[in-house]
Amino acid sequence: MHSIVYITTSDMKEARKIARFLVEKRLAACVNMFPITSVYRWGGKMCEDKEVALSVKTTAKRVKEVIKEVRRMHSYETPCIISYEISGGDRDYLDWVSAETAGNRRAGTKKHL
Question: Rounded to the nearest 10 degrees, what angle do helices 63-73 and 12-24 cross at?
Fold first, then answer.
């Protein structure tokens, strides 16, 4: 089984740090980064901030470790870290995600981002 972990971060510097760590440690096969604007209530006040959202492609068995490491690295007191199970998709891509997060290098030159 595979999962997407959605995370919001304070800025691109923090997003890159987390993304590179997760891929380097094979907790994720790929991480996409998107600039976003978030509106939320915090401490009783309405807030609107620029953030960077991460879409982390991983396996279901890696999600707990992803969450643990992101919480350790994250600058927020209560970071948004939400996981979604992937119910389907391109089998070759999902096999690549499995191989990358298992530490096995799959032969080939195609990008699977």
Answer: 140
